Amino acid sequence: MGLGVREIRCGGEPVLDTENGEELMRVQAGVDIALGNRPPESTGTLYITTRQVIWLSDADNTRRGYAVDFLSISLHAVSRDPDAYPIPCLYTQIDTDAGEDHDSDNSDSDSNHVQDLSNIREMRLIPSDPSQLDSLFEIFCDCAELNPEPTDEEEGEEHDWIFSADQMQDDQAEEEGYIPHNPNNTIGQSNGNHDLARTVLQLQINDKRFEDAEEIEDDRDGTRH
């Protein structure tokens, strides 16, 4: 999964991945965009889909613009404080791949521009009509819910909880306050009924009636001879 802002070019409307369920949620004309500390770019059109935010400039026919996946947007908020930014806007923070190495040998301006985009951590969307900010914020919230952060590590930890039969028996016994018997003594195994196991084991150890019965049988056999 690529992170951060990427530059795109479209001949017209952006192409969506409809085969995999991507849907267009909102089209908002008259929106400026400001990336990082750069000044706002010329007015364009904002497209919000169930997976990404796309802004396309209206200044040229090639419709140069930017796109960022919702999985890369770690925070979004409405900003109306002139001390934070002079124009009301929708402020977003973006996760980036800036820590990865980039090819610094290529001096081409386009390549340098792409490298600069990889360092963009903030994006501001500035509608010409500030009253649209609240509705844009709500759509961002809805789409963020459709793109929860991956939890591969948590799922891996859950599925890595593998125990042997002996470990499960020992853990269960400790939770119930039962001291396990000698595992070589099969009489103590009772499919989890520890009270029954303890009773049978106690009878085996303390009850001498079995020994007395054997002695009586030996005496009877001796008298017969």
From TrEMBL:
Compartments reported by the entry: Cytoplasm; Nucleus
Gene Ontology biological process: mRNA cis splicing, via spliceosome; spliceosomal snRNP assembly
Pfam families in the record: Voldacs
Domain of life: Eukaryota
One GO CC term, this protein: pICln-Sm protein complex
Keywords of this entry: Cytoplasm, Nucleus
SUPFAM superfamilies: PH domain-like
Cell membrane in keyword set: no
Entries under PANTHER family matching the protein: CHLORIDE CONDUCTANCE REGULATORY PROTEIN ICLN (PTHR21399), METHYLOSOME SUBUNIT PICLN (PTHR21399:SF0)
This protein's name: Chloride conductance regulatory protein ICln
Organism: Clitoria ternatea
